[in-house]
Amino acid sequence: MTDNAELLTTPSIEDQISEAIATIDSLDQLDNVFLVACGGSYALMVSLEHILQSSAAVEAHALNAREFTTRAPRTLGDHSLVISCSHSGNTPETVEATAAGKAAGAATICLTNLPGSPLDEAADSHVYYQHGDDKLYAYTGPALAYRLAYAIVDRINRTDTRAEVAEAASHLDHIVKTVQDDHYDAADKWAFKHARSELIYTLGSGPNYGETYAFAVCLLQEMQWIHSQGINSAEYFHGPFEITDFDVPFIETIGLGSSRAIDERAHAFVTTKSDDVLTLDAADWDLSEVPEHLRASYAHLVFNPLLRLHADRLADHRGHPLTVRRYMWRMEY
Amino acid sequence: MTDNAELLTTPSIEDQISEAIATIDSLDQLDNVFLVACGGSYALMVSLEHILQSSAAVEAHALNAREFTTRAPRTLGDHSLVISCSHSGNTPETVEATAAGKAAGAATICLTNLPGSPLDEAADSHVYYQHGDDKLYAYTGPALAYRLAYAIVDRINRTDTRAEVAEAASHLDHIVKTVQDDHYDAADKWAFKHARSELIYTLGSGPNYGETYAFAVCLLQEMQWIHSQGINSAEYFHGPFEITDFDVPFIETIGLGSSRAIDERAHAFVTTKSDDVLTLDAADWDLSEVPEHLRASYAHLVFNPLLRLHADRLADHRGHPLTVRRYMWRMEY
Question: Which residues form the SIS domain (chains A, B) (predicted)?
Answer without folding.
Answer: 23-162
